[in-house]
Amino acid sequence: MTIETDVLIIGAGPTGLMLGCELRRCGIDCVVVDRSARIDRRTRAVMVHAASLEQLEQLGLRTKIERKGVRQRRIVFHLHHSAHYTIDFSSLDTRYPYYLNVPQPEVEEVLAAEFKKLGGTLVRGLGYVSHQETGNGVSSDLASAIGPVRIDSQYLVGADGAGSTVRTGLGVEFPGVTYPMSYLLAEGQPVVPPPPDSSAMYVGRSGSVSLLPLPGGTIRVAGPVSSELLDRDETLPLERFQDTVDRLGFGNTLRLAHADRVAQYQVHERLADRFRVGRVLLAGDAAHLNSPAGGQAMNTGFGDAAALAWRLGQLVRDSNLGIDLLDGYAHERRATARAVARSTGVLGVLQSMREATSGAEQALVRARLSGLAEAWSQLYLTYPAATSPTGEAQLFRGPHRIRPGARIPGLRPVAGLFTLLVRPGQVADALRNASRLPVGAHIDELTPQQASWLPAGATAALVRPDRHVAVVLPQLTTTTQRQAIAGLREEVPA
Ligand SMILES: Cc1cc2nc3c(=O)[nH]c(=O)nc-3n(C[C@H](O)[C@H](O)[C@H](O)COP(=O)(O)OP(=O)(O)OC[C@H]3O[C@@H](n4cnc5c(N)ncnc54)[C@H](O)[C@@H]3O)c2cc1C
User: What is the pLDDT of residue 32?
Assistant: First the structure.
């Protein structure tokens, strides 16, 4: 059997399904396949951060997902000595100044239903085996219980998780490290119910665990524990889990009256050498792996989907564009995955907390924690310039500036369209010059707060469909717009 589509996505995990939804919103034909017959009910990710909530809102899915989760305003760190520390999410520049604890299978269920509602084709029980690039497309061989299937597409995306067969098939290396610590996880009913709107981290001498409230009054207790506390058991009975966690010394606070699930993970940090080979792209865990602390990996996969969808949309719609448009995806998202690994880890801060006994040392810990809510939220992500091959992406808030690569928190672009954001009161001028805008660009006003982020002398900013600034315009005339658009090179068809 042979099927044809514009974009074939391997893997119906959160990344593949989010990409499918984003592409369908842009009207692009796509097929998502997964070798597994059903959604894996074992929860891995639970933390959904603010940038992802903005993305879900744009898809009309945030409320549905919020109903299946619990909002978290802060994370409180508890130690044996009197000090405690807090990461507070309430001052993020967004309508959603919090993060959500929601089980990953629930997120996947909502995304899968939306993808199908938008007219996407989701086929389970179909595994990717291999592919060949043809002149202007990719031909993929897949296997199912009822026989082989071939799918011809213009582009192929490997969103097939950490052990990605697509990545292996491309011969792309996945270098990195495996942490010496084990990551323990149990979910169930607590002995002592925690406050429902804040998560906590309990820091002991040789390990630390998070306590995350989940829907229905259940909790997750999870975290890295040193190998001295845990032999590498294959299976982990609840008694062994509880005994290990008890040794951190926080008593009943971390006790489960009843566990639905107990698991043990090895934690890896890896980054694919390349995110694009010809017409084949890697996204999500297939491209990057992070420690679960801080809950970044699935959220970064959602960001990959946003960054890839608009570019694939433009390429499918306009055959005159060159596929090197996708280099921007590879460059920006690889830099983002590096920044996430560099800026969001907490193991070093946890060690400083254990050692900080004086007021001055504790102040240093507080300084290291400040900005972590912003970094974890991914709201302030700024991409490096396209001209800087080794450039670093930034995740911290810093002083706000609307500049190329910066993400504009709170912006709600129309699906797949560029937005020309103009100073308040200048929409009429912009409309007069609209003939030179990218096809179908949407014109909107900056809020007074956003306008204050424009550099002196600038009048407007052209923003990509993934909310990142493409170009800042000094004056809103036909000539400056034309120059700006020419400056975007292949990224915007003028
Ligand atoms: C304990 C734990 C806690 C975590 N907590 C968080 C958190 O709080 N927040 C966060 O952001 N992230 C968290 N993560 C990470 C998160 O779970 C992953 O980043 C996320 O699942 C990645 O999504 P994905 O779609 O890229 O890959 P996956 O979820 O791995 O999905 C890949 C899909 O591809 C399919 N597949 C594989 N090979 C093939 C093939 N050959 N053909 C067809 N289909 C194939 C698989 O069946 C699977 O459905 C956590 C991870 C762990 C282990």
Answer: 98
Query: In this structure, is the dihedral angle defined by the CA atoms of residues 492, 50, 375 and 47, taken in order, positive or negative?
Result: negative
What confidence tens digit (pLDDT) does each residue in 331-360 have? 999 999 999 998 888 888 888 998 898 999
Interior angle at CA 106, CA 101 and CA 112, nearest 5: 135
Q: Is 100 in the pocket of ligand 1 (CB under 6 A)?
A: no
In the prediction, which pLDDT does 479 show?
A: 57
Hey, which of 44, 107, 212, 275 would you mutate to test ligand 1's pocket, going by the most ligand atoms within 8 Å of its Cβ? 44
44 CB within 6 A, ligand 1 = yes
Structural domain boundaries, residue 434: 419-491
Mean pLDDT of 139-157: 96
Q: pTM, whole model, 2 decimals?
A: 0.94
Structurally, the chain folds into a number of domains equal to: 3
Residues 170 and 181 in one domain: no
Q: Would the CB of 185 count as within 6 Å of ligand 1?
A: yes
pLDDT at 481: 52
